[in-house]
Amino acid sequence: MSNNLLSLRRVVLVFLVCAIAACAQPSNQALPLRLLTHRDFHVPEEAIAEFTRRTGIQVVIFREPDATALVDLLVKTRTAPIADVVIGIDSLERRRVTEELLVEPYEPIDSQFLDSSLRLRDNMLTPVSSLEACLNRSVSSYIEPKRKLDELPDSSRLWLAPPESLDSLLDPKHATSVVIPSPLSSRMGLYFLLALERSHPENSELPWPEFVDQMVRWGVTIVPTWEQAWFSFYSADQEVAAEENHSWTWGSAGMKAVTVRFQPRLPESLDIAVVPNDCVRIVNYAGLVAGTPARRNAGRLLDAMVEPLFQYNIPDRFGSRPSRTDIARTDGWKAFGETVQAPLVDEWRIGPLWAVWQLTWKQVVDFASSGIELEPPEVQVTLPRN
Fold first, then answer.
1. pLDDT per position as a tens digit, 70-95
2. What homologous superfamily does CATH list for 13-131+282-341?
3. What number of CA atoms fall less than 13 Å from residue 278's CA on the CB side?
4. 133-147+160-280+348-369 in CATH: which number?
């Protein structure tokens, strides 16, 4: 009888211990980490799989349509976070994320290897990649035709000097060969609008809304997406007659490295050149979601995002590059990647203004596309009497 009582006491004791400790397994085996990103951001799944193999922590990835929708979701769920880590916040959304305290400060272990110009002093967000958004042009379309000394120029093939800046969009000889992704439906198009506003602010001699009006009237093509602009209209890497192509578009300094990813083998050369003027630099960030119940494991995942394996595989279809300065480049980047001197987007000055600029863009483009010419206002002058 006493043995039964002793066994019963042991059972009760085990039950109480389990009730107090919730019979908990190690935290890395309890619930998977929730990683929130968006469709335009490339998450290196090989690095995520290696993180799980090394730590035993499962990672579930959720994707929103774009960076703005991602931040909107964080705002709506701030009292009950639906994610532990977020990645893919770009320069346009950084101010909103930090001002509304949607993330918590955290400094990854290898942060000393990150580009110092991208790091934030408060460590609210961690830079994981960046890109220089720039004009890209065809090389072959701007090669001056050779002719003999006694041969007259062919009037049907007049040579054009290659474009050097955004101002070339206002040249009627260039405009009809330009295709731009729309800032209303494309993130890359939105980066074009940022670059245009920077080079032609509203208080300049030629404000950017007037610039847009003129370029549309001269025949610049605007399409909904970056993919459509690059692969359907531009296609400088393909063997297509120049007359059938637009010879320049908006992309990034890394677009050549992106293009070779779609080819079976590394080519010797590409018919693409980067226009280094009037570019802007965009940063992509990651961070710990404020209020996450898995802060320790979330921090370990953020540590992994600045480790070599993750950084090596982070270049995406926009031509982004790692934020680490010591990381090896992929074969495509080694052969074709370019780095230009581009200013960082002024995140604090722009703030929510870019949404207003989008509305202005739509009004200007719709009006210019209608073909209606702006008429100067009538001014009535009263002459003084003698």
1. 999 999 999 999 999 999 999 999 99
2. Periplasmic binding protein-like II (3.40.190.10)
3. 23
4. 3.40.190.10
